[in-house]
Amino acid sequence: MAIERGIYTHPWTRGNFADSLRAGYECRVLRRGAELLGYFVLMVAAGEAHLLNLSMSPPHQRHGHGSMLLREAAGIARKLGARSLFLEVRPSNRGAQALYTRFGFRKVGVRRGYYPAPTGREDALVLTLPLP
Ligand SMILES: CC(C)(COP(=O)(O)OP(=O)(O)OC[C@H]1O[C@@H](n2cnc3c(N)ncnc32)[C@H](O)[C@@H]1OP(=O)(O)O)[C@@H](O)C(=O)NCCC(=O)NCCS
User: Fold this and answer.
1) How confident is the chain (132 residues) per 10-residue block, as mean pLDDT?
2) Which residues contact 20 (CB under 8 A, 6 or more apart)?
3) 88 among known catalytic residues
4) Residue 123: its pLDDT value, please?
5) According to the model, what pLDDT value does residue 54 have?
6) Could you tell me which of 61, 118, 53 has the C-alpha nearest to residue 89?
7) Dihedral angle computed from the Cα positions of residues 9, 74, 17 and 44, in that order, rounded to the nearest 10 degrees
8) Which residue among 41, 62, 69, 107 has the greatest number of ligand 1 atoms within 8 angstroms of its CB, and so is best to mutate?
9) What pLDDT is stored for residue 13 in this prediction?
10) Cys-Cys with 124: which of 35, 94, 101, 111 at CB 3.0–4.6 Å?
11) Ligand 1 centre and the CA of 88: distance in Å?
12) What is the distance in A from the centroid of ligand 1 to the CA of 100?
């Protein structure tokens, strides 16, 4: 929760994480010793996977950890039978978009007013990665 609250204007709640665990979503953390560096939450169903959360603690960003977690998420999705991995990202989140583009994701749509934002709502870009 400390990481989540430190990096998002509208962080997930404890309940969002608890619900994801209870629902059996693929939830993974990256640790160094006792320190939590980052995590992801992945939902896989009906041949599709959806990356619901991917987060890295600020001091540990830009060290390749996000890419590593993304590779792990894609690998799990593939193993569980998904043919595509989907995610949403804010148009204002250029850093994450750079990561996803570099990874091979392509934009396939826009969800209007999907995210809460400091002044109203913000669209979501929908990106997808084929999992051959
Ligand atoms: C997005 C996030 C998960 C990326 O994790 P990371 O460990 O920092 O990413 P990596 O170090 O693996 O980055 C790989 C490449 O992605 C691109 N990239 C990642 N973050 C970037 C940024 N802030 N600005 C520009 N490019 C960025 C770069 O091409 C980078 O390679 P480089 O460092 O050699 O230039 C992490 O920055 C984060 O948690 N951000 C805040 C939360 C967030 O936006 N989550 C995604 C919501 S959709």
Assistant:
1) 96 98 98 97 97 98 98 98 98 97 98 93 97 93
2) 27, 41, 43, 52, 53
3) yes
4) 97
5) 98
6) 53
7) 120
8) 62
9) 98
10) 111
11) 15
12) 9
In this prediction, residue 118 carries a pLDDT of 87
Task: Report CA(65)–ligand 1 centroid distance (Å).
Answer: 9
Beta partners for residue 40, in sequence order: 28, 54
Burial class (CB in 10 A: 0-12, 13-18, 19+), 29: exposed
**What pLDDT is attached to residue 113?**
96
Atom of ligand 1 nearest to the CA of 62: 11
Q: Whose CA is nearest to atom 20 of ligand 1?
A: 95
Mode of pairing for the β-strands spanning 84-89 and 48-56:
parallel
Query: Catalytic one among 100, 114, 115, 122?
Result: 100
| Greatest pairwise CA separation for the chain in angstroms | 41
Measured by CA distance, the residue closest to atom 9 of ligand 1 is: 66
